[in-house]
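PROTEIN ENTRY
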Amino acid sequence: SAKLFGAAIAVLPLFGVGLGLGMLFSSVITAIGRNPGVADTVKGAGMLYFALVEALALFALGIALLILFVF
C-alpha cells in the first residue's frame, strides 16, 4: 500500500510535463506563425527544450518503477 502511494506521488511531475510540453509547442507554433523566417532556429530550440522536459518525465517514471519493483 505504501509502495503504491509512493509511486503515485513519484509520477505527479508528469502533470507538469504535460502542461509544459503543451505550452512549449503552442509557443513554437505561434512564433513560427508570426515570423516564418526564424522557423529553423525556433524548431531547433523547441526540440532541445522538448528533450529536456521529456527527460524529466522519464526520470519521474524511472523513480516510480524503482519504488514499485525494487523497494
Summary: Residues 7 and 66 are 8 Å apart (CA to CA). Residues 39-69 form the longest helix (31 residues).
